UniProtKB/TrEMBL annotation:
The modification N6-acetyllysine is found at K606. The gene is acsA. Its EC number is 6.2.1.1. It comes from Kangiella sediminilitoris. This is Acetyl-coenzyme A synthetase. Acetylated. Deacetylation by the SIR2-homolog deacetylase activates the enzyme. Catalyzes the conversion of acetate into acetyl-CoA (AcCoA), an essential intermediate at the junction of anabolic and catabolic pathways. AcsA undergoes a two-step reaction. In the first half reaction, AcsA combines acetate with ATP to form acetyl-adenylate (AcAMP) intermediate. In the second half reaction, it can then transfer the acetyl group from AcAMP to the sulfhydryl group of CoA, forming the product AcCoA. Transmembrane segments: none annotated. Keywords: Acetylation, ATP-binding, Ligase, Magnesium, Metal-binding, Nucleotide-binding.
Amino acid sequence: MSEVKTYPIIKSPQHKPHIDEEMYHRMYQQSIRDPDKFWGRMAHQFIDWFEPWDEVSNVDFKKAEISWFKGGKLNASYNCIDRHLKDKAEHTAIIWEGDEPDQQRYISYQELHDEVCQFANALKERGVKKGDRVCIYMPMIPEVGFAMLACARIGAVHSVVFGGFSPEALKSRILDSDCQVLITADASARGGKKVPLKANADIALKDCPDVHTVMVVKSQDYDISWNDERDVDYFELKKDMPKECKPEVMDAEDPLFILYTSGSTGKPKGVLHTTGGYLLYTSMTHKYVFDYHEGEIYWCTADAGWITGHSYIFYGPLANGATTLVFEGVPTYPSTSRFWEVIDKHKVSIFYTAPTAIRALMAGGNEAVTKCSRQSLRILGTVGEPINPEAWEWYYKIVGEERCPIIDTWWQTETGGILITPLPGATPLKPGSATRPFFGVEPALLDTDAKELDGVANGSLVMKNSWPGQMRSVWGDHQRFYDTYFSQFPGYYFSGDGAQRDSDGYYWITGRMDDVLNVSGHRMGTAEIESALVLHPKVAEAAVVGYPHDIKGQGIYVYVTLMKGQKGSDELKDELVAHVAKEIGPIAKPDKLQFADDLPKTRSGKIMRRILRKIAADDVEHIGDTSTLAEPAVVEKLIEEKL
Ligand code: 6R9
């Protein structure tokens, strides 16, 4: 790892970054030495408050009690909209790009204000009050943002459910947080196909008797069934709604939203975020991590159904008065050039996506990229999983033409915002490393006895203290919050991830701790082996799991998807096994290797290793729930073709 090439900070005479190397170190030290002073200063700088707070922070990890800026009063929608109207009313807040390349909308801050107020008034009309939960099951159209901000405006707590989730998943989320209003659309458009959201909602709601209102945004002219007692045509209702709605005065610690996320056990948890700390943390990270400058076009390709969509499509960028691009389509439609075409069309300077998308596009070849200009690009971000150095280099060299730093951001639904990341003007880069902590963030690595490791080390990644964007509880189950994150290592927040720290103090995320293999007493990150495999020119994607092995404890089982046009053979198998042995060492040699046309993935693109482990272990009866998979049929094929 120490021989990894370091890429120096990219400097441009036309552009002064917000944070340079010297400032990073100085501000980081300040933020750790006196966190309350630091965060108090930032909270004044980034947020407009109706009333000041009583105390900056009050945190006890031993009891899982966390509060920031308690007593302070603000409104998130006011901060994302109203305060920009003085000098930015006509600036574009949201650019929407539809599934088809000829569809676009431009929404100014004034229009955003009017839309959000009308939506807020519509919710009030249907009886929604401060503290009520509202479920949002929507396509990536501007109305998903209007709906979220409308909830924030009246103090309702939104729970956005990803539009790709099944009726069953939608139902359990509605019931868990007792939502009585659902906002949905007739359908969403993805890669030329329609996803019937309203029909899914109808199925889910059969078992949700307390939902009294379904607001339907008709965006696709798609045929839907209608329940007169419950369903409301949003555009009809909107016609009578005033374009003014006074923002509710909220405490910094009032809930802003719930977002469900899966852990290693149990049903998905409702991660609860509150208002003041979350908004401060997302706006500040958005500005510094992406070095956002006024007037720039910023594009994050996530879905609003994930935390990345909440923090870095809507709340962070809009709090900063930025122009944020919302994309309804997919990276490969109508062709694998789509991302780069959209970048050229809207002159995007900051682009933020996931390694899985980068790898998929990389497999499609360079020409799809190089035929587009991409001259507007300045910064390239990544999030969601460890990025293998091969994909990093491709993103850096081919997409960014070595002009744009790769900002590998490590964080979680639970953390609200980015915790470990380079800053464009401040951090030399190493492919595959998320590099250093953001201001106020104090990571540590622990061994299995909860002892803090010094210097170069490998261990459980924890945080020693709180940051304003941290989740506050699991909805309806505070004990679960404590048990999941604070019980294993008392006094620390445990991320569930493993990491290594190198001699420069850079962090390298090795993946979920439950994905770590122990082969003959050697610990090995599955991500490490996957990285090695995808270095091979014939490999597009790889997933590695452990399976029970009589002698080694765990053996290494590898699933490999080949580049287009390649065919699996015994020779190629041997070649790949030898390749891994060469890259990492004989200890990492796969015991079994299966070629797979497709890997089972969640709709957010994460490989479901839980399922791959069951297949590898010949335990297909206990495969469990496959309903959250993008394509459940992939699993049957893998079982059929198993060695
Ligand atoms: C933001 C988001 C969180 C988990 C996290 C880790 C993995 C995210 C990463 C990364 C390596 C990165 N992860 N970013 N691993 N490098 N830059 O993805 O939230 O969906 O809750 O996932 O994703 O394992 O623990 P979430």
